[in-house]
Design brief:
The chain is of the alpha+beta class and 223 residues long. The chain has one domain (6-219). The protein has 4 helices and 9 strands. α3 (113-126) packs antiparallel against α4 (135-153). Residues 69-82 have a biased composition (Basic and acidic residues). Residues 1-26, 61-82 are annotated as: Disordered.
């Protein structure tokens, strides 16, 4: 898969630039350093919006990040059904060179829609904890499920994914979409220098629309 590495992609859920801060408390300065536009749900969504994480290279170059919409998710092993938060996270991934060229500082990994699918899948897993698992088993479960998410992202044209057309900046855009018992994940490449992914639960993906965020500071709680 021409995508970010597993270690790099995992920074979507544990970013070195954000430390241990909880969702909604990410420094907006991290987002402002990006050279690409951030995306979120369009103006039809009127609920809460909040910052999540950014992923950056060793030299501080921002490569991807996520914005949240709805109720901030948390890991609650006893939650199920209507008790679980209703949210959508939108993942923006900067387009990278398809041949993985070196930029003079090191090798740049290529990015594709699969990159966005992997980051979205990992993000959903990060806020999922099956009620039947105890704390001691969660790490093994997470590792196993993360490997499975990576393999699924590498097969966007496979039977695990269906097609979905959703507006991006008002234009119909093709997305790959899949559902699981934990929520849903989608990914596509609308252009404009980015690939998009999204994941969520409790909010139907079929009615979503995405647009470039005019001012990412509007997502900061202290804006």
């Amino acid at each position: 898969m021409e995508t970010t590495s597993r270690a790099g992609a995992h920074s979507a859920t544990t970013s070195p630039t954000t430390g241990g801060a909880q969702p909604g408390r990410r420094p907006v300065a991290d987002y402002l350093r990006a050279s690409f536009p951030w995306y979120g749900l369009d103006e039809a969504f009127t609920g809460p919006r909040w910052l999540m994480q950014v992923g950056a290279t060793a030299d501080g170059t921002v490569r991807h990040g996520a914005t949240g919409h709805g109720e901030e998710p948390s890991i609650r092993p006893d939650a199920s059904g209507d008790d679980r938060e209703r949210f959508t996270a939108v993942v923006t991934v900067a387009e990278g060179p398809e041949d993985g060229d070196c930029d003079g500082r090191g090798r740049l990994d290529a990015t594709t829609a699969a990159s966005a699918a992997w980051l979205a899948g990992a993000g959903l897993l990060a806020v999922t904890w099956p009620a039947q698992l105890d704390h001691a088993l969660r790490d093994d479960w997470l590792k196993q499920q993360t490997e499975a998410a990576f393999e699924l992202a590498d097969q966007l044209d496979g039977p695990a994914w269906s097609s979905l057309s959703l507006p991006v900046d008002g234009k119909p855009t093709h997305f790959h979409y899949r559902e699981s018992e934990f929520g849903w994940v989608l990914a596509g490449s609308p252009g404009n220098g980015v690939h998009l992914g999204a994941y969520g639960r409790g909010m139907s993906a079929y009615g979503l629309a995405f647009s470039a965020i005019a001012d990412i500071r509007s997502y900061a709680h202290d804006a």
